[in-house]
Fold:
Amino acid sequence: MHVSDAQREVRTVFAGGFVGQAISSGIWFLSAALSTWDSPRRGIVVLVVGGAFIFPITQLILRLMGRPASLSAGNPMGQLAMQVAFTIPANLFVVAGATLYRLNWFYPACMIVLGAHYLPFVFLYGMWQFWILGALLVGGGVAIGMFVPESFSLGGWITVVFLLIFAFVGRAAANADVRA
Structure:
């Protein structure tokens, strides 16, 4: 299988990342809302625990939509996708350290980890748009941590917006690819 064919299958099966990013945006929304109107602790728990369910929920939604929920056995990108997925839990130790040092760095640290996680999606999906999403998340996390350190939930809300916008950007790119 050629790399371009493998990438096309990733884009097609996962709709340019649409379903996963929409689910992720929803989890970030719930987390940011709880952090804003209830407690930071509840928001943290929702994001950390809810984040573990993004991929299984994505597969469920894809199946409910009548779409395939996984790549073909011959697609080598499946291994890369699994490796990229494990960058998030591995980096939660860095998030924990930042949060223990300064509670308000939780969302900025998560943004940086999530943004770095999206950078390999450029190759995985064959979509340059993930460079922009990754850069916005990493840059936003750094900027909030440095210049707005008194806000706990700002990074959560900004991430909700970025993920939702790029869910539709990814879907549009994948649909354009299918039409072509």
User: Anything to note?
Assistant: Residues 3-66+76-179 form one domain. The mean pLDDT is 94. The chain has one domain: 3-66+76-179. The longest helix spans residues 154-179.
